[in-house]
Write a structure and sequence with these properties.
It is a single chain. The chain is built from 14 helices and 17 strands. It is an alpha/beta fold and 414 residues long. It folds into two domains: 133 residues, Alpha-Beta Complex (Aspartate Aminotransferase, domain 1), CATH 3.90.1150.10; 251 residues, Aspartate Aminotransferase, domain 2 (3-Layer(aba) Sandwich), CATH 3.40.640. A seven-stranded mixed β-sheet has the order 4-10-9-8-7-5-6, with helices on both faces. Strands 13-14-17-16 form a four-stranded antiparallel β-sheet, with helices on one face. A two-stranded antiparallel ribbon has the order 1-2. Helix 7 links the parallel strand 7 and strand 8.
């Protein structure tokens, strides 16, 4: 699909039956049509992405940046086209600011690994209680290596960040501020632009986990003015095992590399090595070329959809789901943030989340149960986990109805 096509209206896409673009949605389970509401864990893949990956392996497969033959040239061009498309997608100033990673987890680990020289004992790393483990554990490891201390912004009962606590904990010793854009557990949209601005004024390096936001928000890293922004392809219709880290070019040029090996070097002797310029400085070894091709195809697919209409449609589904769940006796919603995207978390009196998820699965409704890799948040609320329904562009009011009916039926068994 050419990138220059004008976005179609949401109504037109609905008329064309967008579900037909996603072949897995033809599956049935227990003789029930699949209702897939686990999109915060991973999204399904449109045929355009599946075809792009198959085409790469069928017609273009080769290693990149190394050989003189035509297959290598084609594969290299496809990889770099994907990098350029990713840069445009998040409005980076240069494609040199885009590093391909396996996903958000690896991207955040990369940043934490290269900041050793930037921290010393007594420095502080400021996180939030809303974070996914991927935006906690790498910073704990960095703190252990450098002697820095971890602080975390608290969360209000409704699931919003406690901004008073943020202001109290942000200070002259804060060297890194790391925060998610959208919470995977509650759907909370954090005011990242304001948080970044204040953290930068305090002299902190700013790192944003955009795993849940890349699909559901318009991302402009230059306007945000963050130092780093991480995203995962599989959360936005691309294959698993591919993601991207945006980093300001000046920082990428000054910070050390992460992994050593082929591709990231300029010259190697047995006594010393010099390194490539970004982004290759941070891409040791053979990259996930097919994954990058799939990411490019997913971005092209998304460009055919008016993002504002997509977001509005998802918001309506979330509001409908919340309204219906509130009418079911025994259901307790977890979190009521001022702004949320695509996620509804809840509990059912007298039931373990896993049991409710299993009962929904028996009815063909796929949701996620557990702590959602956000154990500090669950501990903060004093709960073991939640049942989470998360929405995407191929979900409909009929899916919400099936989901609610499933919850009602589960309630009669509990």
């Amino acid at each position: 699909m050419p990138e220059t096509l004008m976005p179609e209206t949401w109504e037109a896409r609905r008329m064309a039956d967008i579900r037909a673009d996603f072949p897995i949605l033809n599956r049935e389970h227990n003789k029930q049509p699949l209702v897939y509401l686990d999109n915060a864990a991973t999204t399904q893949k449109p045929q355009a992405v599946i075809d792009a990956v198959a085409d790469y392996y069928s017609r273009h497969n080769a290693n990149v940046h190394r050989a003189a033959h035509f297959l290598a040239a084609e594969a290299t061009q496809m990889l770099e086209d994907a990098r350029a498309a990713t840069a445009r997608f998040i409005h980076a100033a240069s494609e040199r600011e885009i590093i391909f990673t396996r996903g958000t987890t690896e991207a955040l680990n990369l940043v934490a690994a290269i900041l050793d020289t930037e921290l010393k004992p007594g420095d502080e790393i400021l996180l939030t209680t809303l974070e996914h483990h991927s935006n906690i554990v790498p910073w704990q490891m960095l703190a252990a290596r450098t002697g820095a201390q971890i602080k975390a912004v608290s969360v209000l009962p409704d699931g919003d960040l406690d901004l008073d606590d943020f202001h109290a904990k942000l200070g002259a010793r804060t060297r890194v501020f790391a925060c998610n854009h959208v919470s995977n557990a509650l759907g909370t949209i954090n005011p990242v632009a304001d948080l970044i601005r204040q953290a930068r004024q305090a002299g902190a390096i700013t790192v944003i986990d955009g795993a849940q936001a890349a699909l559901h928000e318009e991302i402009n890293v230059q306007q945000l003015d963050c130092d780093f922004y991480a995203l995962s392809g599989h959360k936005m219709y691309a294959p698993t095992g591919i993601g991207a880290l945006y980093g300001k070019l000046s920082l990428l040029q000054s910070l050390p590399p992460w992994q050593g090996g082929g591709e990231m070097i300029e010259k190697v002797t047995l006594s010393a090595s010099t390194y490539q310029q970004p982004p290759y400085k941070y891409e040791a070894g053979t990259p996930n070329i097919a994954g990058a091709v799939g990411l490019h195809a997913a971005i092209k697919y998304l460009l055919h959809i008016d993002r504002a209409e997509l977001i509005a449609a998802e918001d309506q589904l979330v509001k409908l789901a919340i309204s219906r769940l509130q009418q079911i006796p025994g259901v307790q919603l977890v979190g009521d943030p001022r702004q949320r995207r695509a996620v509804v978390s809840f509990l059912m009196d007298g039931a373990h989340p896993h049991d409710v998820g299993t009962l929904l699965d028996q009815q063909g409704v796929a949701v996620r149960t557990g702590h959602h890799c956000a154990m500090p948040l669950m501990d903060h609320f004093g709960i073991p986990g939640t049942i989470r329904a998360s929405f995407s562009l191929y979900n409909s009011e009929q899916d919400v109805e099936r989901f609610v009916q499933g919850v009602e039926k589960a309630a009669t068994f509990i």
